[in-house]
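Deviations from the work plan: none for this task. Representative record:
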Amino acid sequence: MTMLEVRAVSHQYGLKQVLDHVTFSVEKGELFGIVGPNGSGKTTLLKLISKELPLVSGEITISGQPLSALSAKQWARMAAVLPQTAETAYGYTVKETVALGRYAHQRGLFPTWTKEDEAAVQEALAAVGLIDKIDEPLERLSGGERQRAYLARALAQEPQLLLLDEPTNHMDISGQVRLLDRLVEAARSRGLTVVAVFHDMNVASLYCDRVIVLKEGKTAALGAPADVMTPALLQEVFAAPVVRQAHPAAAKPVFSFVPKGKEESPAAGLRLSFLDDAAVLAARKPLRVLSSALIGAGFQWATHFVNRQVGLDYDCRDAEEDMHRYLEQRGFLPERTVGMMTAVDVRDAVWVQEEGEAFLVAVMATAGVGNAIDAARSWQHKPFAVKPGTINMVVVIDGRLTDAAFVQAVMTATEAKAKALADRSVCDPETGTVATGTSTDSLAVAATQTGRTFAYAGTATELGRAIGRLVYEAVTEALDRYKRRRGRP
Amino acid sequence: MPKGSRNLPKPFTRMCSSKTLMYALAVTTAVLSLLVGISTGSLSIPFSSIIGILAAEWFGVPLPSDIPADWVPIVMAIRLPRVALAFLVGASLAMAGAAFQGLLKNALADPYTLGVSSGASVGAVLVIFLGWQWPLFGTFTLPVVSILFGMATLAAVLAFTRAVERQLSVETIILAGIIFGAFFSALISLMIALTGEELRQIISWLMGSVAMRGWKYSGLLLPFFLIGAVVLIANARELNAFAFGEAAALHVGVDVTRRKVIILTAAALLTGAAVSVSGTIGFVGLVVPHMVRLVCGPNYRVLLPLSLLYGGAFLVLADVAARTIIEPRELPIGVITSLIGAPLFAVLFFRKTRRKMG
């Protein structure tokens, strides 16, 4: 059943065309988002639906009835609005505020407060979790609670259609999530249809079944967020670079704007230094890192890469927590640091770099092969206690890498490492075959995300070639240093 | 206590919560003020005698023998009409003020600040100045012209505001009211300058008085008062909705434009009628609803009836003060209300602004 139908709606403020033949329909029970940058006409569209602005051109129907045929009261029995910020009326209690939602249901010059009115108000207050604040004056509530009180007022109208105008605009992140979760729950349990204006694409993507994307009053896209909210479209609509990624927990896309930064090469700002028990690579600006390190695994922005040396007898059980503490004690921000461990003497760290055409690759590696293992035959090993990783690598690239390039860089680096081990005839002592690595190797691929863009970093690409050669060089040299130190008593 | 809540000063929360108690208190205050009003004067009449006289006159109970017979005309013909008029005028102004404040979403608005009473004054002064007596209206000419002028002023203020900006913002309405008020003051001054023998009449009318008007004026005011009061109280829920802003009122189903016109018209009717029978008596419409709001909360279902009762009581007592402070001479009642009202206004404004700034 179609709850709301908007047909060829246009609107002008003076000579300015703010809406141009916008057409869409919303089914009963849908959560529909109106998305677009400031001035795209989304609030105007909502105001036309809520009769705040006169409909001049086009047609809007609610449950099949045209807006013009509905009186203010009839409209308010079918639809309710949760505004962006409501003016606070001083002195009104929560209950008096919510009771206003019953206005459209009351009849006569001096209507009485019926049982149905009271039940609707109580139920609405329960739905938003404000029952215990019922007699509290509105101005004593926090911003989020106040917005919930207005949501309760809208619910008390017992509408079929709920209109939201950036309902969480002035709320902190936890308030936003709480309000939207309550809202979705209340809407679903009542079979409410929700039409919401969102300026935050991520909120729209997470909560909406379908969205309309407006650009300068025109429909730029209409459909499910995952289908229509493509980076190309959003980039065009918002006139700013947008990156789309998967949400970590929900099967929905999330979007990030890319701020325009100053184009400078921070690779020159890389500095390798040594503490008594760690090799520290520091960058002047945060680098985007994909790593398997103990601290800062996964995708991360980091300024420091700490390769910490621990004894062979190091107890690995609380390694992550211990490393966290270690970093804090040494004055590193754990949130901004990639932390690795090794049993190798960190003074043997190898540092090589190569300047390509308009890019630069640098590799830091430490290597020890006490746990050397052949990945293809590791199933023959007995389960064993994990010891500190012994081949640790940090690959820094001055350039802009796509996610694919990051993963390919990891592959390229890993393959080059395996080859270095093979060429130095490092063997898996258990199986007697050539080792491909050690059991706890760490790798971090870091990129400045400025300058030239690399879509790929496979072995056939210019970048991949540089990574492969440098990793091979660095690991080989690190193995040699390890051997030399081991050779010395 | 919720996070982020502030400890508001006590007066901004409600001190009474029981409606029955609030109404009982207001009715008692109103009745007492009426008794004080009738009792006070060059000849002091005890409450018991007043009740005896009223019982005799209205219900045919025999007049108690200890009450001198010549007290009856003093109570019935002089004091009661005066007190009744004061009560009706005070009640009208307070209700009109409450309505203006609610509709304009500004607790500091009143008929006076919006220029409605200035407009009504111009009408009244014009009638005196020209000595008008329209055949169809007779003695109703002055209040009718006054009311028409009051409403025309309101329409002009709103039209001017709309011409300045479409949103009809409170600041602009008040500014427009000040402009019109200043212009009307000039018109009144012009008529005073040009007038001859009506000067005294105009001046004393302007300063506001409920003295020596008899029952006639109360009779003139009563129908307007009843219509205005009933219409406003019937629109209490709409006023509550307007307190949350026009958009919110629309969202809950209020026919905004129609209700706005109805409420403004009713309030202008009350103002114009009150001004026409008593002159411009300032600050009643501002201070009384505000004080009631502080004590009983902003809900118009309670605020309007209580403003009626307290507004009436306030003006009756102000009139008592006006005629007793420099006995046997009388002060203009408008002077008394302004002397009390202006400082109160200042205090309320101070507190309101401070509260806004947290």
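Chain A touches chain B through 42 residues (CB under 8 Å).
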